[in-house]
Design the sequence.
C-alpha cells in the first residue's frame, strides 16, 4: 500500500515535469522566433503597426508589400536592422532639405574659421559741432535799394554722440548711435534786409541853390547854438595840402562848404543868420573835417587865404539841421 502510493507520487512528479519541460521548450521556441511589433510611419504622418519575425528593414517592408518611392527616404536605412525603437519612418525628400544640404556644402573652411575671429566692441564718444542757421528777415520795401544788417552773429553749437563700435581684426565693421546729448545749442545768425535810407544830406550837392538847401530841411526843427566860427582856404597853411578836396570827397566850394567836428555828420545843414546877406543866404553844408575842429567850433571855406584872414574868428548863432 505504501509502495503504490509512492509510485503514484513519482508518476505525478514525472507528469508535471514533462508538462513543465513542454511549457519551457515552447517558451524557448517563441523567444527564438523573436516576433516583434514594428510601427511603420508613412509620409503625411499616417502610421501602422505590423507583427513580424523579420529584423531587416527591407524585409519588413517587402513582407508588408510596402514600396519605397524614388522621392522617399527610409529611416533606419533599408539595409540595416530594426533598432530598439521598433519604428520605420518613410518620409518625402523635400526641397527645403535639399537647399539646406547645398548650403552646408558651400560653407568653406575659411568661412568656418572666420566665425571664430575675435570681434571686439568699444564705446566711443565724439563731440560734433552743430552748425548755426542763418535766418534772413526781409523788411525792405519792394523795388528799393537794400542793405544787409547783421542783427545777431551766429555761433555753432556742440553735441556729444555716443557710439557702440564693433571691430573685427581692428577693422570697424559696425557703428550704432547709443545716445546724443546737446552740450551747447547753436545760436542763429540773423540778417535783416532793409531799404537803404539815402539821407537828404547825401542828396545835396554844391550846385544847389540856398533855397533848395533850405527846402531840403523844411519841417526839421534846428538846434540853435552859438559856435566859434572861423574861416579857411585850400592853401598849405590852412589845410597842409592844396587840392581843395574835402573829407567828404567833394571839392570845397566857397559859401557852401563848412568844416565841423564829428558831432555833426557830413551833410548836416547849418544856417547862420549873421551871414544871410552872403551869396549863400547863410546856408552851409558840413562837408569837411579838420585837425583843430571840435564840436563847438566850425570853419567856413573861403576862396582865398586873405578872405579867410579877413573873416577872422567870430562867435555866431548857428541853426543846425540834423
Ligand atoms: Zn589859407
Sequence:
Amino acid at each position: 500500500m505504501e509502495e503504490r502510493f509512492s509510485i503514484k507520487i513519482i508518476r505525478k512528479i514525472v507528469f508535471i515535469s514533462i508538462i513543465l519541460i513542454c511549457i519551457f521548450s515552447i517558451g524557448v521556441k517563441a523567444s527564438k522566433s523573436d516576433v516583434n511589433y514594428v510601427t511603420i510611419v508613412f509620409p503625411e504622418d499616417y502610421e501602422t503597426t505590423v507583427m513580424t519575425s523579420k529584423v531587416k528593414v527591407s524585409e519588413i517592408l517587402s513582407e508588408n508589400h510596402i514600396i519605397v518611392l524614388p522621392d522617399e527616404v527610409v529611416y533606419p536605412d533599408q539595409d540595416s536592422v530594426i533598432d530598439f525603437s521598433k519604428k520605420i519612418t518613410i518620409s518625402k525628400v523635400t526641397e527645403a532639405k535639399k537647399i539646406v544640404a547645398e548650403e552646408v556644402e558651400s560653407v568653406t573652411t575659411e568661412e568656418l574659421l572666420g566665425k571664430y575671429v575675435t570681434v571686439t566692441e568699444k564705446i566711443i564718444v565724439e563731440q560734433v559741432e552743430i552748425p548755426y542757421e542763418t535766418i534772413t528777415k526781409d523788411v525792405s520795401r519792394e523795388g528799393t535799394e537794400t542793405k544787409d544788417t547783421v542783427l545777431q552773429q551766429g555761433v555753432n553749437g556742440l553735441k556729444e554722440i555716443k557710439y557702440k563700435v564693433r571691430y573685427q581684426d581692428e577693422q570697424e565693421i559696425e557703428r550704432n548711435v547709443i545716445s546724443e546729448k546737446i552740450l551747447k545749442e547753436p545760436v542763429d545768425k540773423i540778417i535783416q534786409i532793409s531799404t537803404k535810407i539815402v539821407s537828404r544830406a547825401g542828396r545835396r550837392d554844391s550846385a544847389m541853390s540856398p533855397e533848395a538847401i533850405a527846402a531840403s530841411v523844411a519841417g526839421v526843427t534846428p538846434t540853435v547854438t552859438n559856435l566859434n566860427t572861423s574861416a579857411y582856404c585850400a592853401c598849405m597853411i590852412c589845410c597842409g595840402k592844396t587840392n581843395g578836396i574835402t573829407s567828404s570827397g567833394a571839392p570845397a566850394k566857397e559859401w557852401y562848404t563848412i568844416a565841423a567836428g564829428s558831432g555833426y555828420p557830413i551833410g548836416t545843414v547849418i544856417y547862420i543868420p549873421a551871414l544871410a546877406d552872403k551869396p549863400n543866404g547863410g546856408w552851409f553844408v558840413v562837408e569837411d573835417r579838420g585837425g583843430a575842429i571840435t564840436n563847438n567850433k566850425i570853419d567856413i571855406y573861403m576862396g582865398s587865404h586873405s578872405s579867410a584872414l579877413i573873416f577872422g574868428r567870430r562867435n555866431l548863432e548857428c541853426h543846425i539841421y540834423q
